[in-house]
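Ex. 9. Protein: Alcohol dehydrogenase, class IV.
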Amino acid sequence: MTNKYYEFFCPVKVIAGKAALEHIPYELTGMGAKRPMIVTDKGVRAAGLLEPVIAACEERGLEITTIYDDVPPDSSTTVVRDIAGIYRQEKCDSIIAVGGGSAIDTGKAVNILVSEGGDNIAKYSGAGVLKHPLKPFFVVPTTAGTGSEVTSVAVITDEAKGVKLPFTSSFLLPNAAIIDPRMTLTLPPHITAATAMDAMTHATEAFTCMAKNPLSDAYATAAIKKISHSLLSVMDNPKDSDGRLELAQASTMAGIAFSNSMVGLVHALGHATGAICHLPHGLCMSLYLPYVLEYNLESIRDPLGELLLYLEGPEVFAATPASRRAEASISAIRKLRDALYKRCQLPRTLKETGKVTEAQLDSIAEMALDDGSIMFNPKEVSLEDARAVLRRAWA
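Predicted structure tokens for Alcohol dehydrogenase, class IV:
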């Protein structure tokens, strides 16, 4: 599993901590930006999360030119075109995306249009299409899971064609990611749980998939340790700002890890399940993780065994025979999922979601085999293999 050659890339400035938001005006003016646009959604605005961002800018004499707060959970090419039109009309010069994965991906896509010109975002889809740096772009995540603030990827739905368009370019990376615990204090329990398990999956797949490397390993293991230490205490004490900051940092670390080492079958199955059954991505990650680790077990025994140290701590790691550590890591993840189910009913099986039928499993398996993530899975996956994992995840 050691790669003799690898590349590692993460040029995003991370500004983290209890007063991180107050640094936004400094970052904007440092790039010559004076007329920022905020891209967000109704839920973020209703939760009062824009107030500290607006206040921080106004205190430094910086005006937020316009706020677009109608980003849907599954953003589309139409939404991106509309926002780009408002950006041009209001003569904005920079974008601040405040929200979860959808708001951040929308911000990335809008930045392509306002920087490159035109109204058709589809023509920039794919990898390596963008050739120039884009406008100043800052991201304030309000969930601790996707890691979108440090990834060079965005996914936008083309409603007319009914397909998801992927965009990949290092130019999509924000100039800075602002990680402030105030942004996640109001997250409801089930979203706290699902997004943290999304980050846990990013880190676990980053550490066990084929493109892993020593630098991505360092970020992945640090993320797993933070989530293992903090998730349940945050579930029990939602206003624990130190724990919230730990989970937010873990999400960013896991994002850096997987964007450099890729992911595998959990993501392939998750993407397909999301497309067919419209289940949230973080829930799919949490649901499939132990079943895929069991499928990959003999290909990843050594790295998976190492993860026990970060999942359960040094005492459990030392007391577990080396030959049993990989299985113990899977048990630790199952135990964590059981604890989350007890606290917020986060489903552990497809049946528990109440939104997936057995008849859909074949379609999910077929779609998963066409997903790019599957290329980096440490073990080859046939259609029958994918079906078998889905059957185990069913109930």
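Check your answer against this statement. Residues 187-394 form a domain with the Dehydroquinate synthase-like, alpha domain fold (CATH 1.20.1090.10).
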